[in-house]
Amino acid sequence: MKQASKFTDEQKLDVAMELLGGKVSHAETCRKYGISSSYAYRLRDRAMEILREGIGRPIGKPPAEVETLKRKVSDLEQLAGDQALVIRHLKKTLQPKGLY
Fold first, then answer.
1. Helices (H) and strands (E) in the chain, counts
2. pTM
3. Helix 37-54 to helix 9-21 angle, to the nearest 10 degrees?
4. Cα torsion 74, 79, 83, 86: sign
5. Domains of the chain: which residue ranges?
């Protein structure tokens, strides 16, 4: 079971920004927040990953994969609707009258 973090997202952001800013040493930041060096590196690396993903994308615009998935869902919904119509038509035309 994953343990809940004792830090809020805002505090994690503060740690990451302090590490990325480089004004204070890594060790000083770890002491200040009472965190391990490896946890600090994970926060920093995650912040860098998020920044890389977000650079160049307008604010509020979802990632390209979200748009692709939305299109796929729409296509599958259309296919399911088409299949339902075909099934309904086949039931009406192939079954003896009065059963449906």
1. 4, 0
2. 0.53
3. 90
4. positive
5. 1-56, 61-100
Determine the pLDDT at residue 51: 85
Q: What is the pLDDT of residues 65-97, one digit of tens each?
A: 888 999 999 999 999 999 999 999 999 888 776
What is the end-to-end Cα distance of the chain in Å, rounded?
A: 52
1-56: which CATH topology?
Answer: Arc Repressor Mutant, subunit A (1.10.10)
For the chain, how big is the Rg over CA atoms in Å? 27
* Distances in whole angstroms, Cα of residue 81 to Cα of each of 12, 18, 28: 46, 53, 60
Length reported for the chain: 100
